[in-house]
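Standup notes
- DV: blocked on the single-chain target, sequence here:
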Amino acid sequence: MNKIKLNPKQLLFLPYLIFVLLFVIVPIVFIVVLSFITPKDASINYDKFEMWKDQNFWNIFGRSFLMGILVSLTCLVISLPYVYILINVKNKSYKFLLLSLSVTPLFLFTLVKILALRGILTLIFDIPIDNIGYLYLGSTYLFLPFMIIPLYNILNSMPKNIINASQDLGYNKIITFIKIVIPYGLKAICSGIIVVFLLVVMSVAISNKLLDNSAGNQMIGNVINDLANPSNVFDMQKASSVVLITLIGCSIFYFTINAIPIIYRKIKGGIND
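- DV (later): unblocked, structure below
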């Protein structure tokens, strides 16, 4: 009888496998099951698909996804030229200062940053902070570093001879940035978009703490937070339905964004052929 021999490298993968099983797979299975079962004390008229039919929830869902896309693109438009300039700074002290200013906000509590932004906005505009524009501004302000960091990690490792070769071929800095830098950092761009998108969609504190009237500008994270009441099995069932819908939507977005580099390579390969 052949014995199964495990490679030492495979054993190193075992703790990760156990972690994924316990904290990713099992919770997802629990959420799926809870979404479709009917609680014991439910009445005959209880509708376990209530959240799937709730028009108000779908309005929040659409607002959250639209906000996530807009904030992600805004952060990308701001971060790309900023990182490109940053990696070309020759003065190391100045470069370190600029990078520190980008990363330092991550070490502050989210609530502190939100309250600080609220104070600044109140001081400048002196009007009620209760519309979706402030939600957009606050989300961009909070999650911008999560776009800068992956872009910097990839573009900073880009060989300088690629840019030099581009300039030798007659490309100016703008054309080099479009044709060389952006394709080189395409995977980092997709990663940054996904991270910022998920943070925006699932945010809770921005709507609750930044806006005067959070009820009219809720995100999916707020809905889950309001429904996640362990003492009420009906609320938990609704919260599980919301999480399941969100997982499906976010998975579609995730695979769509990750398909962009593959599609780009195929198009580029077809053009070269």
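- Follow-up: The CA atoms of residues 61 and 137 lie 19 Å apart.
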